[in-house]
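Q: Undecaprenyl-phosphate glucose phosphotransferase, please. Structure only.
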Amino acid sequence: MTLIAFAFKLSNLWRYGELELTHQYSIFFVLFALVWWIVSGFKHFVFRIDGFFPVDRRIGNLLNAFAVHAIILSSCIVIFNLEQLSRLLLLYTYLSTALLIGISRLALFLAQRYFSNSDMAYSRFVIVGMGPAAISLHQTFNSDEAPGRKFMGFFTDKADELSQYSSMVKGKVADLQEYCLQNNIDEVYYTLPVNDKEQIDELTEFADDNFIYFRIVPDFSAIVQREVNMYFYQNIPMISIRKEPLEQVTNRVMKRAFDIAFSMGVILFLFPIVIPIIALAIKISSPGPIFFKQLRPGKKNRLFVCYKFRTMRVNNSTELQATKNDPRITRVGAFLRKTNLDELPQFFNVLLGDMSVVGPRPNLVSQLDHYSKVINKYKMRHFVTPGITGYAQVSGFRGETKEVHLMEKRVEYDVKYMENWSFMMDMKIIFLTVWNMVKGEKNAY
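A: Structure for Undecaprenyl-phosphate glucose phosphotransferase:
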């Protein structure tokens, strides 16, 4: 509808030299848009981009939609006695609408093709087993029109050398873990009988520790539990150990698009006012640089340079967590920490893709080394991109973590965020972060 509105404005400009529509043409716009909405409802494939129809079919669908629209609109013009409408304006409207919709379809096609070839959508997968479920799964994925998947091979202890798929066997199940690490495997589909609990638990733990999605694809009617996430890929049943909304490409693209827009807005409109004031205050408070840079573990434990405003006096203990009444913190630094303003430079990290506006907070490298050994599921929080603010922080779990159970609560909320992510959840966390900045937090030091 937005494109049609723009097309009407453009057509009116071409025909009459002004953008504003008269009352008569405003009514005609409503009629034109309503008919297009009806036509697109019957021809929903006009707006479909996930199937990647052949180009000639997409063009044919679009032309058919315009033809049906023109017939219905002509009938409405006759019925409602609108013959006095400018035929030239109508022609301009159809041409501009076709042009804008065509450009938008092309832009969406190119965007999806870009994301299909990028790290956000491209995934390598292997199948454990070579029974009927494994072969059916391979055939289903192989015939799927959606791009972005690459089959890397089967792993089985009972290979059939006479099978047409024998050349695709990469090794035994014992070879799977090493192969996954060497070839950057993203997904493992387990099609063997589910009675080997020890093997499944081992592969699940390996997948979690190495940021690999583990799927069980057997006849699971006897093992269905409420805790697992069950779904069908066409007619193939699958079990995911946990719900992961950000596994879906559309959700990741939506989140990344918001991150770029939000961080650009902060950088362009807030930074020119705030940064000079904060920089001057930091310089006056103590000698040293304005910004503090530190390596932090990000998504899949990849290290990145995290930017903050310097809140401490220059020291050699940067890997030590800040404590209450920490003598290293300056008076200006205490205010910046209390109001979260010290985190503002991290919007550059968001723009660069190292961080997100919302996500698990990036801990110190020393904390990663320590807590990954003593807290179950700690590494899971690095399945997603770290954030400037997070669900744990707005739920009261921020500041110093003297005891292990405090970090366990953070991890618990980080995992809850991963399993329950939604765009509205991000909006709620951002609102609560701003609200906490206004009212102040006792654990912010």
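A: Brief note, in case it's useful. Residues 249-285 form the longest helix (37 residues).
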